[in-house]
Write a structure and sequence with these properties.
This protein is mostly helical and 218 residues long. It folds into two domains: 92 residues, no CATH class; 117 residues, 3-Layer(aba) Sandwich (Rossmann fold). The protein has ten helices and six strands. The strands form three sheets. The chain has a two-stranded antiparallel sheet with strand order 1-2. A two-stranded parallel sheet has the order 3-4. Helix 7 links the parallel strand 3 and strand 4. Helix 1 crosses helix 2. The longest helix is centred in the first third of the chain and has 13 residues. The radius of gyration is 18 Å and the shape is globular.
Length: 218
């Protein structure tokens, strides 16, 4: 449905909140260094060091652990100055730091017009509702199944069962739409899965396929 804004924008605005105006080349270098640590959306494997490994393990189940985990992840990147990691996290947790896929709203309008119930199932350590409210997406969501609220994380079957129960729909009638292999864990409960391809923030990601898939069996 949505993804983080480009990391260069987040870094630039986070630096401004720390009182630093960075040259575009410095912004790019910092964004590359932070992305290399495995910042969300980078496509890189997170580099988790022992001093924040416990927080990382619990990041999607606890708000404080989530903040610690990602702040420490960013702080270890080369060139990160005092306050930047925390400011970058604040940007990630802010509704202003997210962008909807270009085809999200149109797809959701079509699904609701056809009477399909929709649940948001997310591994997240903070409340996603304000983000989706700002993006105009929350009005389409019938049920919210957030890991830090239900106590389970994808790919654990329990979080998918919780979503099916909330919607009062059999798993075999469900299509899970996601963007990571953790989302594909829904197949363990008998649901179908569709993983959207990677795209830059705000671009079309092929959600028209969702409409074809639900017509074909959900």
């Amino acid at each position: 449905m949505a993804q983080l804004e480009p990391l260069t924008r987040s870094v630039s605005l986070a630096a401004e909140s720390c009182g630093r105006q960075l040259h575009p080349l410095a912004v790019t270098a910092l964004a590359d260094a932070i992305g290399a640590q495995g910042w969300p959306g980078s496509g890189m494997e997170p580099r988790v060091r022992p001093h924040f490994a416990d927080a990382w393990a619990d990041r999607d189940l606890d708000e404080e652990a989530h903040r610690e985990a990602y702040s420490e992840l960013a702080a270890q990147a080369h060139g990160v100055f005092e306050g930047l990691a925390e400011a970058l996290y604040d940007r990630m947790a802010s509704p202003e730091g997210w962008v909807a896929f270009a085809d999200t709203i149109g797809t959701l309008v079509s699904l609701k017009a056809q009477g399909y119930p929709i649940a948001l199932v997310s591994n997240i350590g903070f409340d996603a509702r304000p983000i989706l409210r700002r993006l105009g997406i929350d009005r389409f969501i019938d049920e919210w199944v957030l890991s830090y609220e239900v106590g389970y994380c994808k790919p654990d079957e329990k979080i998918f069962y919780a979503a099916c129960h909330a919607l009062d729909v059999e798993p075999s009638r469900v299509l899970m739409v996601g963007d990571t292999m953790a989302d594909a864990g829904a197949s363990r409960v008998g649901a179908r899965c569709y993983l959207v391809p990677h795209a830059e923030a705000g671009r079309i990601v092929g959600l028209d396929a969702v409409l074809r898939l639900v017509r074909g069996g959900c």
